[in-house]
Structures are given as structure tokens and as C-alpha cells.
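Side project, low priority. Logging it here so it doesn't get lost.
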Amino acid sequence: MKTTWVLVAENSRARLFNWKSLNVLDEIKTFSHPESRLHEQDLVSDKRGRSFDSAGYGRHAQEAPTSARQHESETFAKEIVAELDQCRSRNKYEKLFIIAAPHFLGQLRDEMSPSLHKAVVQEISKNMAQQPTEDIRKHLPDSLPV
């Protein structure tokens, strides 16, 4: 029998389910990344550097290429994808459904290997990480993938 997993995620929390039968979702793992919930000032220890304008006398703070919160969210996406990739290579599951907050879904996609991407049956762009299992099940298809 083919094993199907369901990942429900946002940038600070993710839940992984084994979809055993049509109405049975068993939670097999919970991921947590509290750093993604912190405010930017709590993640950055000091002020940004300052520089002079290239044409003129003004001074301004330099922009960071990526915010600290964005970086933490990307780190969390990498952690989840690494786990999924490892489990897929060990044949723990064959098919994967993903329900994730829109921005975080994009981060997950960016980190996926081509072989993991092939295992994804469907993606749903919705933040349901805090929802009860019954509500999550309602967003999945009416039949298990073949």
C-alpha cells in the first residue's frame, strides 16, 4: 500500500500527518521554530551600519538584504524540507500533500529537490497549522491518491 503524508505548515510551526485511510489522519511529527515568531528587533542585536550617499552629503542606514525574520523562516523551511527529503529517500512515504501559508509555501518550494517535488501530489495555499485535524481533513481530496 502506498503511504501518503500531509504537511501542514506556517513559518513557525508545522505538523506532519500520515494519511492512513480516507478519514484518518495520524499526526506523526510536530516541528516548531519559535525564532520565526520573534520581532525583528529581538532577532537583531544592534543597529544597521551607516553610509554616505554616493552623490551628496546625506547619510543613511544600510538595508539588510534579508530581514532577520525572513532568514529564520527560510531556515525553518530548509529544516522541514531536509526531513521530508530524508524520509522520502528511506521510502517512509510515496506521496505528499502540502497545506501551507502562502509565503511559507513559496519558501518550501524554493528548498525542495526535484525528487521531493515529484512526490508532491497537491499544494494548498492556506494557513491551517493551528487548525484541528478535522478541519485539515476537509481540505484534502475525497479519495486517497493512487
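Brief comment: The longest strand covers residues 13-21.
Revisit when time allows.
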